[in-house]
Amino acid sequence: MISGFPGDTEESIYDMSEGANFILDENHQLLAANSSFFAITGLDYAIMEDNLNFLSLVPDDEVLLFMNFFKKRLDDPYNSPKTSEFRVLDSDKNEHKLILTAARIPETRKIFISSLELGMNLPQGDIRETGGETSHDAGQKYSTGGPGRLSDQYFHFSYLVEHQHEPVFVLVGDVIVYVNEAGIRFLGKDNRYDIIGKSPYDFLDKETQKRIIKLFKGMNAGKVSHPVEESFRVRGGELIDVEISSVPIIYEGIAGSQYQIRDITSRKRSEEQAVLRLRQIQIVNSVLESTVYGFSLPEILENVLKKILDSFEIQSCLVYLKNNDPSTARLASSLNVPIWFKERYNLINIREWPYNIIFYGGQPRYIENLPDRPPGVFDVKILEDLGAISYAGIPVFSEKNVVGVFYVTKGDNCCFTPFEKATLEEIGKEVGSAVVKGLVEEKFGMEYNAIKDLLGIALKENDRIWNTIISSRWDRGGDSADVSDCRMDLINEIGSRMDIINNLRVVYDFLIDENRCLKPICIDSVIRSAIYHFAGATIEYDRALYFVFADDNLSYVFINILNMFSLNREDFSLNIRHSIRNGEISIIISDRDRSGIIDNIESLLDVQPEEALRPSNIAMYATRMLVAAYNGTIGILKSEEDGEAEKSLVITLKRYGRS
């Protein structure tokens, strides 16, 4: 069956295997096809059972041309493959230009066609039927070309099969009588003579043998649609996924079957990975969504743990969060955990092994009760206390820092699947921000309530003492002015720190309710009101008679910024101007004293939530939160004036209506 090949074969179009291969009988009925054929046409594999006529896929104006081309292939006494270009319709009636190379299967009235969609690694130029004679099949005449060109080369059907990149076998009975080069490599042999004359089942492992014997019998009996996807393992090789097509042929006068095998392992793995990734995204998103419905840190953590329990085959789960003390962590929430366990392990030392691996190393830790890797003494104790077979510790990240760890246990399985591991670790990376939000909210609430309570006690006690003293002085007819001054001194002292209290309230309110009710606010009134508080300053202000989307807290944005300058010196000097662009207004604040305050503000723009409670940070943190809530931005504008670099603070807000 193997024959020689005249001329230069390196650039033969038949060396390409990415295209669609299919077989037609003499009536143009589709007998077999590979997956590329179905990918191009958009047809379903089930169409093989409906005796599809290939002419139904050819546009009306090319049907006669294709029939003429096809008939010449059937009647060609030399059986030399010929190439021509035709248009083919897919299931949506879209046209695809294909380059078809066709040859009759020896001793049959069936045509084997190998095709490539135009543009798939082909040389540029118009391609029609090729051969050693003038072509009339496509309705036009083309010259045969010079020596060595494809049009001068005559290929036999056997060469077309021999140089397929996919394994091709011919079986007569259960014996291999032909195998191409790709098939030799597929079976891991050095030459075809180690294969021909043997049964294909001799090269397969026992499990694959049973399935392939049943499959081949079904194909020969016409009970199996083509192509068939199957798992396949050659002896000593890896398990792969293949696509098998079969067609009956006459080989040297004897009835047999030709099988073509395509390795689709990479495609199947990609499809499986895509499905797993989609499921992983759905789980992670559902966990993140659950954090939105928590109004406090305990609620947020409980919602997260419930979602984890619902999404995996998990027996119990618990969360530890770092304390202010860098060496300990507290049990913040748990589900399906015994009460006595929570009491015994309520506080852990995260500097000790094995907690330090997760809290400080940021590495997940899986304790899987496997025969070759039994757990250590410490882990055995944890497993016994939790009544589990295996457990895992997953770090919870926020800004690349570990803020806590959640542990999950399994009671019916000794190990975690790769999918479970990857998804749990993804949750640990994504849920950290919500946990930190809850931590900050909890901390701000405690600080704010403590300050509010202390101030209330101080003012109430001050009133009680003042009233007692005044009553005593009046009883004696004395002057109470000095006592009144003392009382006012205390109130004034508290008043000087009201900026911290107000900003604490702003941040706390924001954390409790992120949904701001925005309305049109006159920015000119807000800026002029803020300037009024700093009588000793010299401020040049280019009035901005515009409305912006904000709320009643907008004044704190400008009061906080001006206060930053007043802390340096009361007689500071600023220039405030504005610009309008694309429905936004930018307020530009320049330091005429070049005091370096804007550099300080720039360094505070990136303050993290865990550092926001410091007195020096709270004002700019509140300012940044408010501007973001108004869908605005705050940043630094760098320019050059009189040959010197100058920085200005820029606050950009959404403008409402027209001036």
Question: Any overview of this molecule?
Answer:
The structure is a single chain. By secondary structure, the protein is an alpha+beta fold. It folds into 5 domains: 9-165, 2-Layer Sandwich (Beta-Lactamase); 166-262, Beta-Lactamase, CATH 3.30.450.20; 271-428, Beta-Lactamase; 440-496; 509-656, Histidine kinase-like ATPase, C-terminal domain (Heat Shock Protein 90, 2-Layer Sandwich), CATH 3.30.565. Helices cover 37% and strands 25% of the residues. Strands 17, 18, 19, 20, 21, 22 and 23 form a 7-stranded mixed sheet that branches.
Keyword list:
single chain, 659 residues, alpha+beta, Beta-Lactamase, 5 domains, seven-stranded mixed sheet, six-stranded antiparallel sheet, 18 helices, 37% helix, GAF-like_dom_sf, PAS-like_dom_sf, Putative PAS/PAC sensor protein
Outline the secondary-structure elements.
Blueprint lengths: L19 E5 L5 E4 L1 H7 L21 H13 L6 E8 L5 E10 L6 E7 L39 H6 L5 E5 L2 E5 L1 H6 L19 H15 L7 E5 L7 E12 L2 E10 L1 H28 L4 H15 L4 E7 L5 E8 L3 H6 L2 E3 L5 H5 L5 E3 L9 H10 L3 E9 L2 E10 L7 H13 L1 H45 L4 H15 L2 H15 L6 E4 H10 L5 E4 L5 E4 L3 H13 L6 E9 L2 E8 L5 H8 L13 H12 L3 E9 L2 E13 L3
Parallel strand pairs: 18-20
Antiparallel strand pairs: 1-2, 1-5, 3-4, 4-5, 6-7, 6-10, 8-9, 9-10, 11-12, 11-16, 12-13, 14-15, 15-16, 17-19, 19-23, 20-21, 21-23, 22-23
Helix pairs in contact: 6-7, 6-11, 7-12, 12-13, 12-14, 14-18, 15-16, 16-18
